[in-house]
Amino acid sequence: MAELLKGKPVAEALLEKCRTQSEELKERGITPTLAIVRCGEDPADLSYEKGAMKRCEAAGVAVKNIVMPVDVDAETFYRTIDETNKDASIHGILMFRPVPKHLGKEKSRNAIAPEKDVDGCTDGSLAGIFTNTETGFAPCTAQAVIEIFDYYGIDLKGKNVALIGRSLVVGKPLAMMLMNRNATVTVCHTRTIDVPSITRKADIVVLAAGVKEMADASYFSEGQTVADVGINWNEEKGKLCGDALFEEAEPIVAKITPVPGGVGSVTTAVLVSHVVEAAIRQNR
Asked: Rounded to an integer, what distance in angstroms lies between the CA atom of residue 145 and that of residue 152?
């Protein structure tokens, strides 16, 4: 039976660190503050916003909600983002995406100043990952995987990692982050031939394809650590599931993140930690 790498203790440890750092900042007259930019009233956005606000409050981080209608004109939208970028009292910006089509997908995400891009969505943040510098922040889900590895003492140095998925949100940035920790990374995708033959040879397998239970027993071998980033809905079973077929993977591997309760449960805590870190960087 594999050890479950649960996200809850990782998130709690992150938030406790944030609380301490927030208190130290407040002693200097600085309140770490997150601006949440939302267009419209999408239920999924509202749910995530509520969770993020709760986590922020618990860590001593203030939240400013910037809500605009779905049909907001581009001039108003970009003027608002520019004003938020220039507001020294706001340290991080979370923009719910996708924004309404008329605002422009690429233009909108890159409108955020990289130093305030706590969600890791701008080209500047991604460049910072590739150069391994403090330019912006990593995408929260990718960082959550690293936080789990660190918390459970999983050394990446010299390890062979098979990563399935090449999105800008998880796969590509996470591959670079793993290499920054001196892992050897093989990125698999929809055009990769015989993926199971690659993943079986790896020390660590990261599943970030977003395809429910795609990885059955043939993908794994004994002694592996598996980080399952996928969050999918299994209609037949009536529950959330990951990219791994858990019932087949768990008896084989040594360690695995559960779904739910794994990587996803750390993501919001990472967002909060990025806001606090942004406040620290901007007030050095």
From this structure: 11
| Mean pLDDT, range 104-118, rounded to an integer | 97
Q: What is the CATH number of domain 140-264?
A: 3.40.50.720
Contacts of 228 (CB under 8 A, 6+ apart): 207, 242, 243, 244, 246, 256, 257, 258, 259, 262, 263
Domain residue extents for the chain: 30-117, 140-264
Residue 220 and residue 223: Cα distance in Å, rounded? 9
Q: Tell me if 30-117 shares its fold with 140-264.
A: yes
- Report the distance separating Cα 51 and Cα 31, nearest Å: 20
Residues composing the chain: 284
* pTM, 2 dp: 0.96
The span from the CA of 109 to the CA of 135, in Å, is 15
pLDDT in tens, 209-251: 999 999 999 999 999 999 999 999 999 889 999 999 999 999 9
CATH code for the domain defined by 30-117: 3.40.50.10860
DSSP 219: G
